[in-house]
Amino acid sequence: MIHGVKNVPVKSNPLEDQGKMPLFEALVHYAKQDVTPFDVPGHKMGAQLDPLKEVLGDMAMRMDVNSMKELDLLSHPQTVIKEAQELAAKAFGADHAYFLVNGTTIGILAMMMAVCKPEDTLLVPRNAHKSVMEGIVLSGARPVFIQPEIDYHFGISHNVSVANVKRTLEEHPETKALLVTYPTYFGTMNDLTEICRIAHEKNVTVIVDGAHGAHLGFMPDEMTDPMSAGADAVTVSMHKTGGSLTQSSLLLINQDRIPAKMIQKVLNMLQTTSANYLLMSSLDVARRELVLHGKQRYRELKTVVEEAIKAIESGSRYEVLKADYVKDQFHQSYDWTKLVIRVNGIGLTGFEVYRLLKEKYGVQMELAEGYVIMGVISGSDTKESIDRLVFALREIEKSFGKNDVLMSTQVIADQVNELVLCPRDAFYREQESIAIEDAVGRISADTLMIYPPGIPLVIPGERISEDVVRQYHYYEDTFGNVLTETKEANHITVIKENA
Ligand SMILES: Cc1ncc(COP(=O)(O)O)c(C=O)c1O
40 alpha carbon to ligand 1 midpoint, in Å? Predict the structure, then answer.
């Protein structure tokens, strides 16, 4: 069965259509023709890009083309892009799907701008990605932040609780929309079906940052994906876990509360007029792969991952985040394709183990935090790739492990920053750069964060607390690179006083 029954037409074999790749096929057909290009791109099928052509191959160059009649136009899709988007919509159980060529970032901005007018109230988890914070500035929405559940044992935050969402909705009856991150970067999922029900009862639109959940509807475990849960709009990074090329994402909508016309209009404001065909056609290919083979592949992988978790934990001081723990402690569900490994038991920070894995064993993890490292398992993984990680972890414990468990009170921020100004107002105020040591009490015009995961310690409009400064130093000391908007070391941009 194709995921999301709602829009699947009654046909003898709905998978038949999902075998098609209209955009990819049209692009390959064009690239194989004997065409003399007098249109852009000016590299003219790679004529002056020999080193790149040598590595990527002639076809990759010939497929990097601009819009034309037979290849359709992303901003006004009529033929092959339209068909490819319709297939994606069916595969994900949405009324409409839109191809994105600037990642989920652009989808988040578009969803927020299509739903919120300036001054509309938007509920947002405080551990949302920076693109959400930027969407708040662009849309002019008034954010009300919801604190996520904090996990002191693993030193990370999980999803916001249903009770917290419910309470915040009751406290803010003027709410226009609610944004949910689902799943979180670390793979936790709240009861989105219940959240959608509560929100819709109050006529609140639910938009979802599904950056890390493109695969959810194609898992054998029947994990609830945002469209099935009843979300009004979701953007998924197909390039993160859906198998397409980096930067390609999908925006999906159920149009009961969100007019398709408005989404297209906002996307046309935000996206390039020269959408990359390699990226778009990779969405067509990855969608087909997920629908046709996703369940089988994830079923096989699950057994491999379960065995790997046993091997990582057996006789070691590592601990892996698991569904039962997340359910018991936080009443949330868990996506097992995120391998969150608590490593502070061997006396090292996540950042140290992350570096050792890369430098000594050639293993590139997705990210690290004070106590954990995190790896993303995708349909492209194999027993061999996962075994390599397991082997490296065991070697690291043997060769570099220390006797004491490493604990720090700075690993997780659990203080709520005071929001003094609307982020959009802060953005337009006069600003200055000052030493971070002198910034306590000032209103930030900056976004401090480490990337990944890109979750800000402070955002424009929030008061800088002692805790923020302490966290800044913690990340500088352990991770080494806190991103700020100012170029001067250990400085932060703040709102000018009395300006
Ligand atoms: C939770 C979350 N949302 C949104 C994004 C943005 O996605 P993209 O990189 O596809 O623009 C990211 C990227 O890391 C993310 O982690």
Answer: 30
Closest by Cα among 323, 304, 296 to 389: 304
Residue owning tokens 């964060």: 449
Does ligand 1 come within 6 angstroms of the Cβ of 366? no
Instruction: Determine, yes or no, domain membership for 382.
Output: yes
The per-residue pLDDT for range 11-34, each reduced to its tens digit, is 456 677 999 999 999 999 999 999
Q: Measured from the CA of 128, which atom of ligand 1 is nearest?
A: 1
Q: In the listed set 290, 306, 341, which residue is the last one of a domain according to the structure?
A: 290
Q: How far is CA 279 from CA 27, 101, 422, in A?
A: 12, 7, 36
pLDDT at 484 over 90: no
For the chain, how many structural domains are there in total?
3
Contact 248 CB / ligand 1 (< 6 Å): no
Q: What is the CATH number of the domain that holds 331?
A: 3.90.1150.150
How close is the Cα of 53 to the center of ligand 1, in Å?
30
Q: In this structure, what CATH number is given to the domain that contains residue 440? A: 3.90.100.10
Query: What whole-number distance in Å separates Cα of residue 453 and Cα of residue 320?
Result: 19
Quote the CA–CA distance of 13 and 2 in Å, as a whole number.
Answer: 10
